Amino acid sequence: MDIVTRRTRNAVVLLVALLATLLSPAVQAAMPFLEGPGGVPTLAPLLDRVTPAVVNISVQSPAPAEENPLFRDPFFRRYFDLPEAPPAPPSLSAGSGVIVDAGKGYVITNHHVIENAEKIVVTLKDRRRFEATLVGSDPGTDIALLKIEPDNLTALPFGDSEALRVGDFVIAIGYPFGLGQTVTSGIVSALGRSGLNLEGYEDYIQTDAPINPGNSGGALITLTGELVGINTAIIAPAGGNVGIGFAVPTRNAKAIMTQLVAHGEVRRGRLGIIIQDLTPDIAEALGLEETQGAVVREVASGSSAEDAGIKAGDVIVAFNGRPLRSSSDLRNSVGLVPAGETVELTLVRKGKRETVRATLREPQAAAAPAEEKTERLVGATFQDIEPTPETGGRDGVLVAAVAPGSPAWQQGVREGDIILAVNREPVASVKELQAALDKAGRVAALQILRNGTEIFLFVR
Predict the structure, then answer these.
(1) Is the pLDDT of residue 23 over 60?
(2) Residues facing 96 on adjacent strands
(3) Which terminus of the chain is less hemmed in, N or C, by CB atoms within 10 Å?
(4) Do 29 and 62 meet the contact criterion of CB atoms below 8 Å apart?
């Protein structure tokens, strides 16, 4: 009984000490949601400071009337005694934006908010209105930059979106449904989300802070009042919030803003490679310990990747020191860097790590070859060949023919290919090729010589 009493007393002492610490002036100053003599939880002091930086954006765009072209012919109208049609009214839409530079009047929003705009009006929380100038926009990341008169503005400081973790508390601020400024809160539900726009560069923050139509371009902030995301999209089967919203990280938004300020457009560089995700079974086929990264399938001739010494079969695991999770992660990272800049790539080749530097080029200077699909070897016929100068004196197996539409065709094997190795083991005959494929397991990495260029194909 004495032991239980002692434990209870110790627990009470610890709880009192913890409460005293939480309610101390120093901790309250660091925690914006505690205020007042009673320590009443509130976000009001933080929001008083940051909400003036989040603005409403009204967009006027042309809306041509849908009608028979003959109705616009004066003779036709006269002949049928049709009255003169009034001009079609302009289309009006609305969204949100964030002031990120009070001194220069820069406002970040979404590209889809201002797309095709004839006139853009920014309304501040204090109801002041400014006609905005479009500095530039980027459909790939869905980021646009506006400029308004820098008259006594409040800006939100950029936070470090790379430091976010799943479970961090965040606040979404915007102007949904034309109701006026609205604040919602939630947590970071996931990081690095993609798949919403296959043509774009996606690395979204997912949050359950309620985001609705009209919130696009608004702010996602931390409890310290720093901007970590630009609210962009929702999954809304019924047209409203269901707890799945997405924001562009400030890492991406800042990089795009820098290029828009400098050039009025985004001038992306290109490496000139075809890549795919490094999966556990591909890692096993290549004999690698790494399970995350981007496998180089093909390197374009004359590209910056070729100049840097990158080869088919390399696995790129970091970009400018930042670890890569997947091929889309690498694509997104390259897409934020302008042409002419030099980047650092960490890659794994035959189990060894090395770092290379590549200067990105204009897209036209190093367009990557078209990507091909993968699947099985049925439908291809092979034959033994002797080493030739074209193969560098190495043995290999010639792909004599491939039936169009066959599994081998679908996986990317083409007539004239020379298979040099399977899972990095050289093959010198059709018999050795078959034996290597039987031994390869779920995935086989084919090292192929095609038109003088070595590439890798992964067949399942």
Answers:
(1) no
(2) 56
(3) N
(4) no
The pLDDT of residue 271 is above 50 = yes
First to last CA, the chain: 67
The closest alpha carbon to 226, from 206, 253, 262, 264, belongs to: 253
Among 252, 248, 257, 256, CA closest to 229: 248
pLDDT recorded at residue 199 = 54
Active site residue: 189, 216, 303, 327, which one? Answer: 216
Beta-bridge partners for 459:
444
Is 142 annotated in the active site? Answer: yes
Among left, alpha and beta (phi > 0; psi -120 to 50; other), residue 364 is: alpha
So what's the pLDDT on residue 1? Answer: 44
Question: Tokens 């606040």 — which residue?
Answer: 171
Report the range of poorest mean pLDDT among 130-134, 271-275, 386-390: 386-390
Whole-angstrom distance, CA of residue 45 vs CA of residue 33: 8
> How far is residue 112 from each of residues 83, 89, 115, 231, 273, measured CA to CA in Å?
37, 21, 5, 12, 30
User: 294 vs 205, 236, 290, 316, 428, CA distance in Å?
Assistant: 21, 32, 11, 5, 29
Express as a percent the part of the chain with pLDDT over 90.
35
Catalytic residue among 101, 138, 142, 203: 142
- Whole-angstrom CA distances from 203 to 138, 164, 247, 312 are 15, 13, 9, 26
Report pLDDT for 425: 86
* Range among 114-118, 146-150, 389-393 rated most confident: 146-150
Tokens 């930086």 belong to 53
pLDDT bracket for residue 343 (50, 70, 90): very high
Q: Catalytic one among 93, 101, 111, 112?
A: 112
Would you call 263 a catalytic residue per the annotation? no
Backbone dihedral angles phi then psi of residue 450, each to the nearest 5 degrees: -130, 115
Distances (CA, A) of 298 to 149, 372, 376, 458: 49, 10, 19, 12
Dist CA 400 CA 415 (whole Å): 6
Contacts of 5 (CB under 8 A, 6+ apart): none
